[in-house]
Design brief:
Layout lengths: L14 E4 L3 H12 L4 E4 L8 H4 L4 E2 L4 H5 L6 H11 L6 H22 L4 E3 L12 E3 L5 H14 L3 E4 L6 E5 L2 E6 L7 E3 L2 E4 L8 H7 L7 E2 L8 H8 L4 E2 L4 E8 L4 E2 L4 H4 L2 E3 L13 H9 L5 E7 H7 L3 H8 L4 E3 L2 H7 L4 H15 L20 E13 L2 E2 L6 E3 L5 E7 L19 H16 L3
Parallel strand pairs: 1-2, 1-10, 2-6, 10-21, 11-18
Antiparallel strand pairs: 3-5, 4-5, 7-8, 8-9, 12-19, 13-14, 13-18, 15-16, 16-18, 17-18, 20-21
Length: about 450
């Protein structure tokens, strides 16, 4: 990396993107394709990104994949679903912009990045009025990130720097004109624009205690890189923040295996019991708000139960298959064997199974208000020990529709942009406002917009 003194930016200065995850790579590639020289600074490829650890499911409306299957959807319907779930607590213009550009980032990933996408129609995700989750062949974020990174590394106008040392941004007057690329006074990389795409602060116990104390009990499943770097860089120069209490929970984390199962399991018919073999919640509510209900159970644990039909339906999902192959999912021929496998009281589990199946068939009302699926679970049964997890935080720097970072007066900080988890998300406050797919939709759409905005 060339060191240079900051100055008033000109057309020859590079765009500097801090963070090589979903939002950062999208911003870098879009800007480079439009003629910008880009320096992409990544803290650690080895430690991974949140996108890499995810299901890799892309929430988008109005795509050609939906049209090919005759699925009627629109950005307006997607936005209505998201705003309903977050209780109307998000920036309406920003959410509108993300939903409007969602089909564009999906098509960009297919056409420019070259990932063979399909529309997942096997899982009716909670809060979605239409099938709108898109994915690559393995339905895993690792495939998405590796494919994207290969294209980024090959681009002649992108300099990709791994193990980059960044300690903040440089300001002249009110304008951001560079990045402190080390800890010395002269370690400065000049930039015509800086995009903060460092994700959130799920890996910082200190910031969680301040902003999301209810997430501290959750098992963190995000990247070690995500300790709020971009957030702190913005705060240091007067940026405003919003919805800092917001976080995405994950109700299907396997605590002893380092894996997690798909949040789509309950929508296909799984149910959960605590260590007393008693159901405790409506399993088909959103998996984010289900997280604290699991953590409130004895030892913060539960057992998720499903059958062969559900295993077969989930097999193409990469994170489910990863958990299965790691041994987190176990097969049993009878309810009694399942109870023995997880040290559950057999009589209580048999009663929970009977009552759940009766409700599933409409013979009895579900005690938690779950809608009858019409399909009971049948042997062989599968079970997995689960706990509640923290996937990523959703609060961040306040941005406008062009991803420009705003100060407390609502004015733009010239030269500074934020995307992905560094920018405030679409999920309201707390844990319950998250809609499945919000994270990657927000990351790729804001990355796309940022890349366009900072282009020459």
């Amino acid at each position: 990396m060339n060191e240079m003194s900051p100055s008033i930016p000109n057309e020859s200065d590079p765009v500097c993107v801090i963070g090589g995850g979903a939002a950062g790579m999208m911003a870098a590639l879009v800007a480079a394709d439009r003629g910008a020289e880009v320096v992409l600074l990544e803290k650690s490829v080895l430690r991974g990104t949140n996108a890499q650890l995810s299901d890799g499911l892309l929430q988008a409306a109005g795509t050609r994949y939906q049209m090919e299957l005759g699925i009627d959807d629109s950005p307006e319907l997607m936005m209505a679903d998201i705003m309903r779930k977050n209780g109307g607590n998000a920036s309406v213009p920003v959410v509108q912009a993300i939903c409007a550009r969602s089909k564009d980032f999906v098509h960009f990933i297919a056409d420019r990045v070259g990932l063979d996408l399909h529309l997942n129609t096997s899982i009716p995700w909670h809060g979605h009025s239409a099938f709108r989750m898109h994915a690559g062949p393995t339905e895993h974020g690792a495939e998405l990130v590796s494919t994207f990174r290969h294209v980024v590394r090959q681009h002649p106008r992108i300099t990709f720097v791994d193990k980059a040392s960044v300690s903040g941004v440089v300001v002249e007057g009110r304008r951001v004109v560079g990045v402190r690329s080390g800890h010395g006074a002269n370690d400065v990389l000049g930039a015509r624009a800086v995009v903060l795409a460092c994700d959130g602060f799920g890996g910082s116990r200190k910031l969680l205690a301040t902003h999301c104390p209810d997430a501290l009990a959750a098992h963190y499943i995000g990247s070690e890189n995500n300790v709020g770097d971009g957030l702190l860089y913005g705060l240091e120069i007067g940026a405003a923040v919003e919805r800092m209490s917001s976080w995405q929970g994950h109700a299907h984390v396997n605590p002893k295996h380092g894996t997690h199962l798909s949040g789509g399991l309950p929508y296909l018919g799984s149910f959960m019991v605590n260590l007393n073999a008693v159901r405790f919640a409506r399993e088909d509510e959103g998996y984010s708000e289900l997280t604290p209900r699991i953590l409130a159970q004895p030892s913060g644990l539960a057992v998720e139960i499903f059958d062969q039909r559900i295993v077969d339906a989930m097999w193409d999902n990469g994170v489910f298959r990863q958990g299965y192959e790691a041994g987190a999912v176990r097969r049993f021929e009878t309810v009694a064997e399942l109870a023995g496998g997880f040290a559950l009281p057999v009589d209580a589990l048999e009663e929970s199974m009977r009552s759940f199946n009766a409700a599933a068939q409409g013979e009895l009302p579900d005690p938690f208000g779950r809608v009858s699926s019409g399909t009971p679970l049948v042997a062989p049964f599968y079970g997995a020990m689960i706990t509640g997890g923290l996937a990523h935080t959703q609060g961040g720097l306040r941005v406008d529709v062009n991803t420009a970072v705003l100060d407390e007066r609502g004015e733009r900080i010239p030269g500074l942009f934020a995307a992905g988890g560094t920018a405030a998300g679409m999920s309201g406050e707390g844990v319950a406002g998250y809609t499945s797919g919000n994270g990657l939709a927000h990351a790729f759409a804001t990355g796309l917009i940022a890349g366009e905005t900072v282009s020459p």
